[in-house]
LysR substrate-binding domain-containing protein (Chelativorans salis), 417 residues
Amino acid sequence: MNDCLEIPNIRHLRMVQMIGQLGGVTCASRTLNTSQPAVTQAISNLETELGAELFERRATGTYPTKVGLLFLRRIDRFFDILEHTMAVIRGASVRPAPPVERLITATQIRALIVTSEPSTVNEVASQLGVSASTLYRSVREMERHIGHRLFISTANGQVCNKTGEYLARRMRRAVREIEFARGEVRSATGTGNVKIVVGALPMAGSSELATAICALLARRPEARVQILTRDYHSLLDDLENCRIDMIFGLLRRPEWATDVEEEIFFRDSYCIAARRGHPLTKVPDITPEILTQYDWVVPAAGTPRRKQIDRLFEDLLRKPRFGIETSSLATLRALLSKSDMITVMTRGEIALDVSAGMLISLPCRYLNPMPPKGLTTRSGWLPTEAHLDFIDCLRAATSPAMREKGQRQLRELAIAS
């Protein structure tokens, strides 16, 4: 089951937060109008679940441990996100907003996150051991508590309206803080680590990404890294909905995406990719007219690489044959190595194939410069130590010196083979 669906009792999380802020169980129970035994039991249950002590009990009060401070930092962010979200949804109101733990429950949050993606509702409901109707019933209870409709009925069933989409996205972001909290506790106690989820664009720079992952594992042998490769807009949606932590590849943030930030790492360049011994190797100056003589393997329309290919021929009456369209790099490489078909690739992405003798990289002065490559993250994101280490490894792997070293090693391997 996805960790983000394992949400602790929100009232218990508030009790933890109050003890951290007020320095004692008595003060926390009085502020929350809850009995001391209830607060003590809630803390004990959370500590048992986490496998670590969050507080030290002293005669002068109850104080956070080192692990507790890590956990409290994330709990503060969890409540900040939820409270800001509820304030946005409520809008101007003369009545003071009740605490979020009185408006919504962990079960309702989980239900909204699941039902906001209708295509997977039945599958996830089965994993959770409940029916889909039970999840929708929880969301309807949430609607009554917050005073807003979250779903609309369509021919395809219940789907989120704009308020529901916004609330689900923000709740994913809040719950991701809980997931980070668990990971940081595991890391601090030596029982595990945070999972780093990276969205990698096609032609992002697999060599640099592999170098960074190997460097991270040398620092953190217990690290867990998941790489997802999809088109840019799918990954951007995943990033905004906290399904991934970052996007590595071409920086192409749309103007409307105001809640993400970009960091430039390096610049790559385009080239013509073909098989070893291709007739184009005998052409001193590869022009668009010459390139129309060959069949092409192209990516989907609208992608940066496809736009680059289309630009080559936009002023020509005769166009080349775009016989095969694929986003699969494995299929692309196989097709190029077994035929005279050609395509445009980045020099970084083709470097390993060149060193292995499968493909060649040919210059073409008609290819435009590439946008920079780097990292895209959510605005206001607080990385864990594991994420910071990975980002440092990415910066190092994409530095000019490291990239030149990698290219040199590949050339040496090619000569030796």
User: Anything to note?
Assistant: The two ends are 46 Å apart (CA to CA). The first strand starts at residue 55 and ends at 58. The chain has three domains: 3-171, 193-267+376-412, 270-362. Residues 270-362 form a domain with the D-Maltodextrin-Binding Protein; domain 2 fold (CATH 3.40.190.10).
